[in-house]
Amino acid sequence: MANPLKGEIDLKLGEKTYKCRLTIDALVRIEDELDKGILELATAIAEAKVRIRTLIVVLRNALRGGGNDFDDKKIGSIIASVGIVVASTEVAKLLVATLSDQDSDEQDKKKEPVA
Predict the structure, then answer these.
(1) What is the pTM (predicted TM-score) of this model?
(2) CB 58 within 8 A of CB 30
């Protein structure tokens, strides 16, 4: 089970759930390999303008960060088995969870006046 305090996220791909984690180093590797900023990638995925290669690169880094040792071929097989739409949706969820500042959200909730 993923530990959100460590930035870990559970990602459901088909019948299996994988522990994932995207560190700053992983995000930099993704940006360098795909020659796009991470926010640009997240936007492209949200607009359904994503390549399978992008999904593989993001998943490879996230899965390895979660302690899994998958190569591109294995990740491609996972994508093929669950479908591109499901894989894209899960990668989008992963990026949103990684890029959102949950500590900030919690602090904002504490600041809200109680009615």
Answers:
(1) 0.81
(2) yes
Q: Count CB neighbours of 19 within 10 A.
A: 18
Q: Is residue 109 part of a domain?
A: no
DSSP state of 47: T
Residue 108 lies in a domain: no
Q: Do 30 and 20 contact (CB within 8 A), yes or no?
A: no
The number of folded domains in the chain is 1
- 23-81 pLDDT, tens per residue? 899 999 999 999 999 999 989 988 889 899 999 999 999 999 999 999 999 999 999 99
Helix pair angle (38-46, 24-34), 10° resolution: 70
Strand partners, 8: 21
Is 104 a member of any domain?
no
User: For residue 76, is it within any domain?
Assistant: yes
Give the position of tokens 């998943």: 59
